[in-house]
Every structure is written in structure tokens, then in C-alpha cells.
Write a structure and sequence with these properties.
Number of strands: 24
Shape: globular
Strand order of the largest sheet: 14-17-18-13-12-20-21
CATH class of the largest domain: Alpha Beta
CATH topology of the largest domain: Aldehyde Dehydrogenase, Chain A, domain 1
CATH architecture of the largest domain: 3-Layer(aba) Sandwich
CATH superfamily of the largest domain: Aldehyde Dehydrogenase, Chain A, domain 1
Distance between the termini: 62 Å
Strand content: 15-25%
Number of domains: 2
Helix content: 25-40%
């Protein structure tokens, strides 16, 4: 596949291999973009922003809806491509495409709901005899940078709201999994003018650096690591930024919880896309009186999970994105065992695959729960009561999403109020997300909110008009 710059599909001499994580087959090659390619894409978007802002909201809405229809028509083709380039089980890949369709439709609707407001400036000194109102105008050009784990939906969460607010976009998809984004760009480019969306593939140190430092970029929206996010925040200068930098999401199980539901949620939350999800359950904080029963049921259900070919509908656990990622998880588990954790299940790596793993007797100072472990790991921390559970939940530099299982409304509300996270789920795992909800974390999990309405708001500027009526 080729890059998209100003409506043209552009190749380059240097290529990047896109490899299937399951069997190491070469799927395709994409261009290794250069700084000049990025500058051309930025200039294209910069020129087009003046044309796109003159489009009617109706025209924008209809174009986005047409993109959703086209994506729906190609749902299975997109799902297979996601599965092939990421190793994501096909059922989860289909869900990602369905969510992406929904995200585009929500953006189509939101493009018609960008409102200003009247301002009662006569409430201020000297304001009598004047009328004022605000306008919401596009920011201009969005620089979007996305990771491998949701190559379609995370790109759509940046592109569709930006277009809804009449901004243009330069997207840098993951070099590991760029194919789905490029295929989606073909659809969007067929319904929007040349230059409205540009996609440049290549290495982050080259493409991302040009986006961040360009004075023609008005906002950076980034999903990825804390280290890269911190660099962007330091170098973006006067640009607006939205950063989604991962999580270390806890699932609390209290003594009064429905254990069966908590275990079911743990399975869904810990092993979704092999744990390579920013909102995956990364820590199980379990009240000691029910810990043994919880562990017994968790082991029973985890043993039922099937590892294998991601394109098989029977597969629950696919490969990690590459062997190095699997080795990192292997090393973290090994160090946890040296530090005193108890291995109850799994713990074995085979190439890119890592078995679903349950660790007990984990403590908060272990690396497996201090950092974001991107793998199929269920580390259990035993606590006594709601207060200790919340303290342990907050003992991390992250604060994306959290969950608590309890039948006590007081405990639920206490957790909602005191857990330091952007979202707290009650009797639902942290992987729960609808595409219209405000999504974004606290602390090192980032800044700003995604979710269509909230993204659109952040992709506009407020202009004030004042009329002298005297």
C-alpha cells in the first residue's frame, strides 16, 4: 500500500515490512516516509483547511455518513486485515470495525451540533447596549499519531471528529500495523476533497517529529507511550494536545461482590487482545475473605481459553504483536516470581505467544503492577477492605480507567469518588467503552478527552462577536 498525500497515493524507495504476528508471513510493504513527505502532507492539509471550513455542516455530515456506509459494506475485509496485521482474534477485529462504523456515524451527527451561544455582556460594567455571541470555528490542521493495537478505531477517533469540525488531518499510523488505516484513507478520500486527509507511513522519530514541530499544525492528538507523550508535550509549544498514554487499570473485588460476575469480567478485561489494550485489567485487587474462591473460579475459567490462529473464530488468545513484546512479558513475569509472586497458571512463552497467566501473592511494588504490562497477565493483590483496596488502586502513576465489583452502594460511590482515574466502572470491567463517552485519564495516563462530542469540542476555537446596538 502507499501513502496518501494531497489525494495522490505516493510510494518511496525505502520500504517497511508489515509482518503477520501469527506466522511471520510478509503481508505487504509500506513506504518509509521522509521529512519531505511529511512537509508535503502538512502543506496539503494547510491549504485545504481554508476550503473545508466553507463546507456546510450538512455536506460534512453526508460525507461522513457515506464513509460509514462504505466501511460497513467492507466490514469483513477490514476485520481480516486487522487480524492479519495485529494478530487480533477475528471476533475482536470485527467488533473493532463495528465500533469504527459507529464512531463515524456519531461524528456525522455531531457535525450538525456545533453550537455557539449568546453572551449577556450587559451583566458587566459598560456592557449595556451591546449584543454578543460566540462562534465555533475549526482549529485548522490536526496531526494524529496512532498505535498498533486498534489500528482502525483509534485512527477514526481522531480523523472523524476532526473532519466533523471542518479540520484537515495528517495521520501517522503505527509502522507495525499501518495497512488498515491506509485502506480506510481510500474510503475517506473518495468522499472528501484532496488534502482533507493525508496519511504518511514511516518511523515515529521522523514522521512524528515533523508533525510536532511544524508551525502549520494546530493540534496533536497522540495515543501511545508515556515517554513519547512527555516528549510531545515538551516540544509542541503553542499547539493544543490530546494525549492518551496508557493505563494500569485495577479491578477491585470486595467481599460483598458477585464473584461469578467479577471473574467473568476479569476474563474479558485481562485477556482482551492478549492484554495489549490500554484499558485492559492490569491489576486484580481482591478482598482477602473471598480471594481463595475468586482465584479458584478464575483458574477454572482461564483454562478454557483457546490459543491459536487469530483468523479462527474459536481463538480467544492470539500472539503478541512481535516476539520482543512477548519476551518483555516473559521477563516481567520471571522477575515477579523472583520477588515472591506465586505462579498459579501459565507463564510460558512460545515465540510471539504467551500463555494466559495468573499470579498470586503480588505486591504493589512489583514491576508487573507498577508499570503497564502489555500482555495476558492477571496479577492478584490481596487486601483487607475497601480503604486498602482504594489505596492500592491509587498506588500507580497511571489513572485511565478502573472498576469495582460490589453490591454495596456506599462502597461503589466511595470508589467512584476516591479512585484517581478518568472513569470508574461499577460491576463492569475497565475495558468497557462506548464511542460517545468521554475517554481519557488522569496523572500519567494523559490529558484531554476523546469520545466524539468531546473531541469535536476540543477541535474548535471560540470566536466572540460584539455588536453595538446603540
Amino acid at each position: 500500500m502507499k501513502m496518501l498525500i494531497n489525494g495522490n497515493f505516493v510510494d518511496s524507495k525505502e520500504k517497511i515490512d508489515v509482518v503477520n504476528p501469527f506466522n511471520q508471513d510478509l503481508i505487504d510493504q509500506v513506504p518509509a516516509g521522509t521529512p519531505e513527505d511529511v512537509k508535503k502532507a502538512i502543506n496539503s492539509a494547510y491549504v485545504m483547511k481554508n476550503e473545508l471550513k466553507n463546507f456546510s455542516a450538512r455536506k460534512i455530515s453526508e460525507a461522513l455518513y457515506a464513509c460509514a456506509v462504505d466501511l460497513s459494506d467492507d466490514l469483513e475485509e477490514f476485520a481480516i486485515l486487522i487480524s492479519m496485521e495485529t494478530g487480533k482474534p477475528i471476533n475482536a477485529a470485527r467488533d473493532e470495525v463495528k465500533r469504527s462504523i459507529d464512531t463515524i456515524k456519531l461524528s456525522s451527527e455531531e457535525s450538525k451540533r456545533i453550537y455557539g451561544e449568546t453572551v449577556p455582556i450587559d451583566a458587566g460594567i459598560g456592557g449595556k447596549g451591546f449584543m454578543a455571541f460566540t462562534l465555533k470555528i475549526p482549529l485548522g490542521v490536526l496531526g494524529a499519531i496512532t498505535p498498533f493495537n486498534y489500528p482502525l478505531n483509534l485512527a477514526i477517533h481522531k480523523i472523524a471528529p476532526a473532519l466533523a469540525a471542518k479540520n484537515t488531518v495528517v495521520l501517522k499510523p503505527s509502522a507495525t500495523a499501518p495497512l488498515t488505516a491506509l485502506k480506510m484513507a481510500e474510503i475517506i478520500n473518495s468522499h472528501f476533497p484532496d488534502g482533507a486527509l493525508n496519511v504518511v507511513t514511516g518511523r515515529g522519530s521522523i514522521i512524528g517529529d515533523e508533525l510536532v514541530k511544524s508551525e502549520k499544525i494546530d493540534k496533536i492528538s497522540f495515543t501511545g507511550s508515556v515517554e513519547t507523550g512527555r516528549m510531545i508535550s515538551q516540544r509542541a509549544v503553542m499547539k493544543k494536545i490530546t494525549l492518551e498514554l496508557g493505563g494500569n487499570d485495577p479491578l477491585i473485588v470486595l467481599e460483598d461482590a458477585d464473584i461469578e460476575k467479577a471473574v467473568e469480567a476479569t476474563i474479558r478485561g485481562s485477556y482482551l487482545y492478549t492484554g495489549q489494550v490500554c484499558i485492559a485489567v492490569k491489576r486484580l485487587i481482591v478482598d482477602d475473605p473471598v480471594a481463595d474462591d475468586f482465584v479458584e473460579m478464575l483458574l477454572k475459567e482461564t483454562r478454557k481459553l483457546k490459543m491459536g490462529d487469530p483468523l479462527s473464530t474459536k481463538t480467544d488468545i492470539g500472539p503478541l504483536i512481535n516476539e520482543n513484546a512477548a519476551k518483555v512479558v516473559e521477563r516481567i513475569v520471571s522477575n515477579s516470581l523472583k520477588d515472591g509472586a506465586e505462579l498459579l497458571l501459565g507463564g510460558t512463552r512460545n515465540g510471539n505467544f504467551f500463555e494466559p497467566t495468573v499470579l498470586d501473592q503480588v505486591t504493589s511494588n512489583m514491576k508487573v503492577v507498577q508499570d503497564e504490562t502489555f500482555g495476558p497477565i492477571s496479577p492478584i493483590i490481596r487486601v483487607n477492605g475497601i480503604d486498602e483496596a482504594i489505596n492500592v488502586a491509587n498506588d500507580t502513576r497511571y489513572g485511565l480507567q478502573a472498576s469495582i465489583f460490589t453490591e454495596n452502594i456506599r462502597h461503589a460511590l466511595k470508589a467512584v469518588q476516591e479512585i484517581e482515574a478518568g472513569s470508574v466502572m461499577v460491576n463492569k470491567q475497565s475495558t468497557f467503552r462506548t464511542d460517545n463517552m468521554p475517554f481519557g485519564g488522569f496523572k500519567m495516563s494523559g490529558m484531554g478527552k476523546e469520545g466524539v462530542k468531546y473531541a469535536v469540542e476540543d477541535m474548535t476555537r471560540t470566536k466572540l462577536a460584539v455588536l453595538n446596538t446603540r
